[in-house]
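anyone seen this seq b4? input:
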Amino acid sequence: MAEKALTAVVQEACVQGVSTRSVDDLVQAMGMTGISKSQVSRLCAEIDDKVKAFLVRRIEGDWPYLWIDATYVKVRQNGRIVSVAVIIAVGVNSDGRREVLGMDIGPSEAETFWTAFLRKVARRGLRGVKLVVSDAHEGIKATVAKVLNASWQRCRVHFMRNALAHAGKSGRRVVSAFIATAFAQDDAEAARTQWRKVADQLRPKLPKLAGFLDEAETDVLAYMTFPPQHRTKLHSTDEMDKRFFMIAPR
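predicted toks r here
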């Protein structure tokens, strides 16, 4: 039992980014004699094996909804600290179960990286994807269509931030309220009609913003063609952002 407790404490400490010296202090605080660097490395290697097995497991069933996002973290490579992109894909299957389906690390968020990542997940059995939700990462829309043959939803939260940057500080609340009227519609056709009305209302004084709305209409309103009971979860990557908030500080 003591060995299991030691393993659990050390592995959790490693996941949280605790240094080897601090792990030793923690073990001694538990009333044990301490732990060597080699023991810590061995126990952490067990985590690596479990993670690798999880990331190459076979994906079974249909996964109609997929959220993908990326963040940048600092890592040590060849004695240098560099910034790398971490990609995570989370899916919901036809039974409503949510699961992390893939994760990868690369030098950037270039289209080639997205393509390789999604193809790797597809080879493991990912199928039945109808909608992919993400921010407007470079090349991601084309990659989603090419690899998964699915629709793409641009994250509404990130879109609004970009849109309001065109509105000026004094006009942001009004513009936000205007755009929100499109999201409040009951179906896709009504949402598109209202979206265009808003763009036309803004065009005389805010032509750049109106043009931005014109370009984004299809991608921001893609979720409106899906069942109403699903829409509140389909229009943004908020849940993904929470996961990355947990990853980034480590």
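Residues 1-56 form one domain. Strands lie at 65-77, 80-92, 98-106, 131-134, 151-154. kinda curious what u guys think
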